[in-house]
Structure formats: structure tokens, C-alpha cells
Amino acid sequence: xxxxxxxxxxxxxxxxxxxxxxxxxxxxxxxxxxxxxxxxxxxxxxxxxxxxxxxxxxxxxxxxxxxxxxxxxxxxxxxxxxxxxxxxxxxxxxxxxxxxxxxxxxxxxxxxxxxxxxxxxxxxxxxxxxxxxxxxxxxxxxxxxxxxxxxxxxxxxxxxxxxxxxxxxxxxxxxxxxxxxxxxxxxxxxxxxxxxxxxxxxxxxxxxxxxxxxxxxxxxxxxxxxxxxxxxxxxxxxxxxxxxxxxxxxxxxxxxxxxxxxxxxxxxxxxxxxxxxxxxxxxxxxxxxxxxxxxxxxxxxxxxxxxxxxxxxxxxxxxxxxxxxxxxxxxxxxxxxxxxxxxxxxxxxxxxxxxxxxxxxxxxxxxxxxxxxxxxxxxxxxxxxxxxxxxxxxxxxxxxxxxxxxxxxxxxxxxxxxxxxxxxxxxxxxxxxxxxxxxxxxxxxxxxxxxxxxxxxxxxxxxxxxxxxxxxxxxxxxxxxxxxxxxxxxxxxxx
Length: 495
Description:
CATH class of the largest domain: Alpha Beta
CATH superfamily of the largest domain: DNA methylase specificity domains
Distance between the termini: 14 Å
Number of domains: 2
Shape: elongated
Number of helices: 13
CATH topology of the largest domain: Adenine-n6-DNA-methyltransferase TaqI, Chain A, domain 2
Low-confidence stretches: 485-495
Structural class: alpha+beta
Strand content: 15-25%
Mean pLDDT: 89
Number of strands: 24
Helix content: 25-40%
């Protein structure tokens, strides 16, 4: 049960007469009703309020639930003197400028009075539109039915989309505030109107509400006030649990990737060799590709110092710089001045095409001619966004693609592409990217710096075992994100 559902349940019990016991010595709702009507007639006789057309009897269709025998169903118009405020009219030239509140100032049982507007009010309008301490205000427009009690010691004016309810005789105004709160959440208050929904005076006047004896009203409110702190504590605990449930799948995935890059996800096997041996193979392959003119000779990478190493890895592993395990490049965008570069020969990838480790290949494409001036990477390369708020987003290419200058790419040599992807999408690597990124308004990491970022390198066979384990457990994290599992949480105690 959500905190809102719990609160609604308590209020439902309250207005159905099930929250506190009935006491015969406190009289009946009928007796209180007669007292209120007598006071209403007195006010009419003294000219303080206008005589109204008598309200009809409440029909069975208007009664939403059963109440105790000692209670009585009545209309809001039976209990409250009812006014609405003044409509803003730029043509008004008479009156004095006074502050007033609008629907935007009224929230559930509270007011935001930091920014008040003024308009002109005549003496007659001041009398009609002024609220005083103890008045119940109900919204006619906006969030229709939203209510609050004016508990300030100073008067205030209201605009025309606010109803002012002032009791004819003593009642517990908080009890009726709770009625509006529950009615609103239960869908028992519905606005009517063309274009804009609204709670008209006529509809509000004939809203049926339960009337308990006055003493019972006060006991009900006292019980609600006693229970509310527990609901608030429940709400806080519920929010913490909800937040945990939302964050847990992502946090779990981060933890798994951290285990990967620390060599703790699978065991090491001596027969699989060492990362140093693999690294030498990669360097030999690079030299071969350079000799054959397939890649350019690179500037030697700087030695790795002890101060750079962020955490320990297994002895059979090796810390290397990113470009040390493959060939890297930054993309470009063929000039739009040449429409012949656009076509459907090869997909052209931008940061917006990379999402959740996947690539959309169908948004843009280059022609065969466009490919010759674009930057292309092979199947199995990893694209990573190097600029802006999405910096660090990455995916492995399933086909040959071209890509723009906001993306860096690495084509691993003798390494598993999925392993490299898991490393460069880890919290460690992305946070390092952001730390090294330059730019003031927009962070950007150039390829020269990106190339030198440290990555942990295991033997190739271990890389493949790591990938196999990730393929087994990461889909479970995705199911958790989608809410496909029910969370086994402990029962909340001692709220």
C-alpha cells in the first residue's frame, strides 16, 4: 500500500464513522444540523446573508457510502456561507489596490504567499471577496477541488476561481477539509464546464457530505492528527525503498563491471598465459600493419607510472593505455556542400544513434563517394561519444560504419570487443573521461587524451570467459530495470 493509499484509507474510515467510536451523549448530526439552520435563519433575519432557495432532499443516488445512524447527510450549502472572489478586469478604475490570491497560491492545506498580485477592490467587493481566519477555500479552477484552511491572523482577498466557505455555526473546519481531500482523491469531485473544467458554485452548493455531531468531528480530527506523523514516517521509508528499487539495477550493473575490470568476476587460469604475452602479440600485429601501410605509425605511448594506477589487478593482467590494444580514430562529417556524399551505401553514426549499448544504423547514410571522405571503422569496433552530456556512451559495431567527429572509435587487435566495451563503459573509465575532459560549457575529451587512458588487460581466453559470464548475468540486471522481478524486501517495521 502506497503512502497516499494509506492516507486515503484512514480518511475513508474517518468520514464513514469508523475511525472513532460513536458516543450517544454527544448528540446527533440531525441536532447539529438544526442548530446550524437556526443560526442561518438568524443571519438572514439580521440581513447579514441573503435568503436562498431551499435545497432539495438528498436522494439515494447522491449518497456515496453508508454512515452511522447518529450522522446525517447534508449539502455543503446547508453548512457554509458561500462566495467566490473577483475576476480581474482591466477596465476597472474604481476601488483601492489590494493584494489577492489566485489558484496558484493555494495548495493542499497550505498557501504560497511569496508573490502576490494586486487589483482594485471597492468596499462592496472587499466584503464579498475577503477571507478571514477559519475560512475553507476550495478551487473552482486549476486543480479543481483542492482546498486549504486560511489560518492566518490577517485578511486576504481572493480571485473568482476560488470558493470561500464560511460556516454558519460552529463546526470543525478541519473535518470538512479532510472530506474535500478524500473526495478529490476518490474522484467524487468532478468539474463541469465547456473547454475548461471547473467546480461551479451550483455544483459545490449541492455537494453531499456527512455531518457527525460536533464533538465527534473534533475527536476524528484529533485521531487523524495523531496518525499523520506515522503516515509521514511511512512515506519517508517508502520513498527510500522506491529510490533503492530504482537505483539497485544500475548500481548492481556498475558493481559487476567493477568486478570485471579488477579481475574478480572469473578466476584466473595459468594455462591461459599472461596479458604481457598478449600485449606483445598486439604490438607485433601493429608493426605488421604499419609495414604494410594499412595503419599509420603512431607516436610512442608514455610509460605508465605507479601514481597513475587506480587499483590492483591480478598478476597475470597488465595495465595498458587504450590505444595500445588497438587502432583508434576520431570521426568526421563530410561537407554538406556536396550532396553527392549522402546516400545509402554505408550508415553514418552520430551520438544520437548510440543508446543503451546499441546502434541505430538507419537514421543517416553516406554514398559510396561519401565513404571515401568519411572516417570508417570495421565490424567489432567500439564507438564512444567524446563530447557533451552523453560523453561515455558507447556501443560495438555489428557492421562497417562511418561516424562523426563527436565520436572516438577503437578497433581492438587480438582482444574481445565485448570485453573492451565493458571496460570503457565502466564507472571507472567514464568518470576518468569526464575528469580528463576539457571545455567549460561543453565537456570534450580529444582522442590524444582518450588514447592514453588506462585499461586493465587480461589474457584473451580470460576476456572471453568474462564476456560469457556478462552475457549470463547482465540480462538479469535489465529485467530488474524493467521491473520484471518482484523485489524481496523486508517488511517495514517500527515506523
